[in-house]
Design a protein that fits this description.
Length: 183
């Protein structure tokens, strides 16, 4: 069993928000909070107790809960802000996953960065993150089409989300590459 750390308090909140979301907005919202809860545990597994763990959990919890409560429909540009922030967190997680793959192959991160160049690494991480954002947008469209029309989609929403995802991915990937050579 994993020993508890202070950041697990937020994971406990994430768990409690799953049934709360179901009661407030139905099972699709509970499913969103379940995805958030999974991301919270991914953060713990990869960087438990770190600043990324704490800040990433706060961003993910806020993004999910804003969806549950319909706040995105009431606050202009909140959706785009949260897409940018969550993409930055995801880009950092993608960078950590790449670092782990390099470690398994006994390749120092600094060597990989010297080989590929920091710009190519930055753009590669950002591209992978943007690709995950595209998958999210496809899932939103599927949810709107198949599950419930309450899931907000549309041309302006999707393009705005993808633009915000790109900005967040570029920032998060830059932070990942910047910190990658220091460990």
């Amino acid at each position: 069993m994993l020993p508890l750390i202070p950041a697990d308090l937020l994971r406990g909140l994430g768990l409690a928000l799953i049934p709360a979301a179901w009661v407030i907005a139905g099972w699709p919202s509970a499913a969103v909070m379940f995805l958030v809860f999974g991301a919270q545990w991914l953060l713990r597994w990869l960087r438990g107790g770190s600043l990324l763990d704490w800040s990433g959990q706060i961003v993910m919890l806020a993004a999910g809960w804003f969806s549950v409560t319909g706040l995105y429909h009431r606050v202009t540009d909140l959706d785009m802000l949260m897409h940018a922030l969550t993409s930055a967190v995801v880009a950092r997680l993608v960078g950590i996953a790449v670092e782990a793959a390099l470690r398994r192959r006994d390749v120092p991160v600094s060597t990989a960065l010297d080989t590929t160049g920091r710009t190519v690494a930055w753009l590669g991480l950002a591209s992978a993150t943007v690709s995950l954002g595209v998958l999210w947008e496809l899932a939103e469209w599927w949810g709107h089409t198949v599950v419930t029309g309450e899931i907000g989609v549309g041309y302006v929403d999707t393009i705005g989300d993808m633009a915000a995802n790109t900005v967040g991915a570029l920032v998060g990937a830059w932070l990942a590459v910047r910190s990658g050579g220091r460990r």
